[in-house]
Fold this protein.
Amino acid sequence: MNAARGRHILMQRTARAAPLPRRAAFVLTAALVTALAACSGGGSVNIANSQRGDPATVDFPIFYVKRTVPKNAAGVVQQDDLRVLRDAVPSADLFMRATASPSATETNITARLTAGASWDVKDVDTSADGTKVAFAMRGPLAMNQDPKQPPSWRIYEYVIATNNLHAVINPATDPDPLTVNDVSPHYLPDGRILFSSTRQTQSKGILTDEGKPQFEAQDEDPRDRNESAFVLEVMNADGTGVHQISFNQSHDRDATVLANGRVLWSRWDHAPGKDAMHLYSANPDGTDLELYYGANSHMTGTNNTVVEFVQPRQTQDGRTLALIRQYTGVDFGGNLVIIDGAHYAENTQPLAANSSLTGPAQTPATTNPVQTIPGPSPGGRFNSGYPLQDGTSRILVSWSQCRLIDNTQTPPAIVPCTSNALAQPNVQAAPPLYSVWMFDPVQNTLMPLMPPVEGIMVTDVAVAQPHPLPAVILDKVPGVDLDQNLVNAGVGVIDIRSVYDIDGVDTANPNIPTVADSAKTPPGKRTARFMRLEKAVSIPDRTIVNLSPAAFGASDYMLEILGYAPIEPDGSVQIEVPANVAFRVSVLDANARRVGSAQGVWLQVKPGEVVKCNGCHTPASAQRPISHGRAGLFASAWAGAAVAGVAFPNTYTSAPKAFIPQQPGETMAEARMAVSCANDTPPCAQMVPGVNVTYTDVWTDPAQTPNVGAPINYRYDDATNPIPAIPTTAVCVTAWAANCRIIINYPKHIQPIWDAQRTGLLNGAQASVTCSQGGCHNPTNAAGAAQTPAGNLDLTSSFSTDVPQEFTSYRQLLFPHNTVIMGQPGPTVGPYMNAGSANGGASKAFFSCFATGSGCNNPSHTGWLNIAELRLLSEWLDIGAQYFNNPFDPAVPVN
C-alpha cells in the first residue's frame, strides 16, 4: 500500500590449517599487509601499519566478542545463516578495552560467568550516554548437547563504572518459559530496552482468542520450520513490562534507533512469494510501521547478485550504515554500505520530494573489492561496523583479510590473496581471521587495533562513546492518542483513499471521479467491489504438531480470512482490522474473486491505530523495480471531495437513504464513516467488517440516475443457497469481532461440495446424483461399472496414489495427472484450478462452466453450484487452495 503522511501502511570449502602461535600470526598479518596491496580485482586494500604509531584517537571503551572459529570434525568452517538466530557457536566471551588502542589492556567481561565453559555471546550495543553495554548471551552448553535446545539466549547488561554484570530479566521472576530466546538488544532514548525475541507476548494472547493453545510460532521458512520467529519486544530497564511491538511471521532483527526516535531494523520479509531481508521502521510502540529501505535493491551485490540488508546503524551525518551479504556461505561477513535513507526508499527510487535525484542511494563504504558472494574476497570481509560520533566519519569494524589455502604445499599452507594465487584453479579461501580495525571511509584506510589470531574471530564491535540522545517518541495513550472504543474492541482501522490509486497513478477507467459517479459509471461496471482481510496462520513447532507437507498441499503456508467490506464507488475503504496480527489485503470483483495480486507484505495495526494509505501497488519486477509502503513515496492520485457540506455527485440529498455530506478532501469512505460514527449504534457500525460478502447501494439516488447497484449477498447462512459446511462460527456469521476467523479446510469444506446431492439435467434427463459419488466425475458409474471420469477429473474422496494423505479430487483439481482411457494410458491433463487465484487461467475456465448461458461441453454445469458454493471455492483458491488452513484440525496430516 502507498503510505500517506501520518500513520501509515503502508558452503563448505576449507581444510583446517595448523594453528599458529599468537606471535607468528601477527608476523603473518604483517606479511599480508604488503601482499594485499598487490591483489587484483578492483583496487588495493589500504591498511595503515601499526608500526607508524598508535592509531587510537578514541578515548572511550570499545567492546567486542572473541570466539573460536566454528569448524566441524573435518576442520571445515561451519557457516552462519542470517535466517537462524537461535543456534549457539561456543565458545565466546565479551571483552573490553578502555580505549581504541592496540596498547590498551584487554579485559574479559563475561569470564566471571562463563568460567571457561561453552557459552556464546553476540549482538553488542551501548547506551547513548556511554555508561552501559547490552548484549545477548547463552550458556553453558553441555557436552554433546543439541545446540538448538536450551539453554536459551538472554539479554545481559554491563555497567562500566561499577563493573556490574547482570541478566536484565531476573531469571527468578521471568514469567516466560526457559525455552524463549532474546537477542539483539538496543537502548531506547527513554531508558527502556528494545530487543528481538521468541516470547511473542501479544501473539500468544491472540492464539488464545482464536481457541488455540499458546505456542511459539515458527518462522515461514518452508525448508524446515524449526525455529521460532523472533519479533521485536520492549522492556523496562529492570526487565519488567515486556510487550511485543512487531508482528512479523519471520524474524525482525538488528534493531536500532534513529536520531528522530523511530526504530529501524532488518525484517525478514517472507510473506507468500517473498524471501528477503530489508529495512523497516516504526515508532517504539509499534505504530506507524513502514518500509524504510531496500525491498527492491537486493540485486546490488558482487556482479549484481542478491544481498540482504542487516545490522543498520545511523551515522553522524544521518545516513545509515548497513552490512550487505548473502544469507549463508560468506564466512560470517560481507560489505559495508552507506545508505541515504533520508531521501531514498530504494537504490534508484527517491521520495517524491526528491524526485530529481537518480541515485544510487547506497555506496560501498570502501573502494576495496569486497565480495558478497561465496569464495575468496580480495578486499577482505566485514563482520560488523559501529560508526563513531566524533565528526571523523570513522567506523570501528570487525574485518578479515583475504587469505587462501595453498593445497600444493605439504601440509597445506595459508598464503596471501595475490593476483597469481587468486588465478589458480579451485582456489580455496582460508578460514576467516576477523579482528578489530579502525576504518576511515574518507581516506579508505584500515588501522589494526589488535593483531589477528589464527583460529579466533573477533566480532560484534561497539564503542561506548557518548552521543546526543535520540528524540523520545512517547507511546500512544488509549483515550488520548487512540480511540478508546477501538482499543476496547481490540482493533485498529485501515483507511485507503482509493484502490484505483496504483503507486500514485489513477488507474480507474477512465478516472476515479467518473467511476465514483453512478450517473456516469453504473455500479455493476466498477472493477473493485470488496476488500478481503487475510491473516497469516501461525505454525507450531514440530514437537506440538509435526505437520506433513500434505497438510499444506498446493501452498507452503496457511491463511485465514478475517472478514470482508464493500469498497465505495471512488475506491475508498475504511475498515476495522484485528490488532496485533500479521495480515494482508486483497481487492475483489463482484464475484468476490481477487483482481490483480494480493498486497503481499504483512501489515499490522496496534489497538486503536488508524493506518492511512493512498492506494495499492503493482508488484515489483525487473522491469519495474519500485517499492511502496513508505511515507512520501507517492502523492495521492485521488483528491477527494471538492467542497464542503454538499452530497457527492448524484447521491442522495434527502430520505429515504441518508444524506452523506462531503468535506474538502474527504473520500466517500471517510464521509460515510463520519456519519456512521456520529449516528449509528454502536458508533461506527459501518466500519465493522463481516464474514459474509454483502453490498447494498447507499449512494445512488434513483431520482437522479437509474443506475442503482443491485444488492450482492454471498452469505454462509443463506438458506436458499446453502453450503455443506460453514467455515466459521455461528456467532461470527451474525456479529463480527476481532477474534472471528474463516478457516477453510479442503476435506471439511470443499470436498462436501463435490459430494452433495444435486438435482439437474444429466445426459438430457433429470437426475439426482452427486458430482463424485456415482456421478460423472467418478471412475465408476452409479451401477458400479468402470468409466472414464468426465473431463478425466475424478472428484472422489478416495486417497490419491500420488500423495496418499490427500484426496484424489484435490490432487486432480490442482496438479497435472495422467489419464487412463479404456484401460490404456492417456494424455496428461490438468490442473483445473490455479492455487492462489480464482481469476487465474485454469480457475477462470473452471468457473465459466457454471455461468448462466455457459457450461462445460455436455452436460451443462449451469446451476449445479449455487452462489454461496462458488464464493467459498473462490476465496479458498485466492488464499492458496491449501489442503488445511488449521494446523490443529484432528484430521491434519502429520509426518
Observations:
- The chain has a mean pLDDT of 89.
- The longest strand covers residues 456-463.
- Residues 215 and 540 are 6 Å apart (CA to CA).
- DSSP finds 13 helices and 44 strands in the chain.
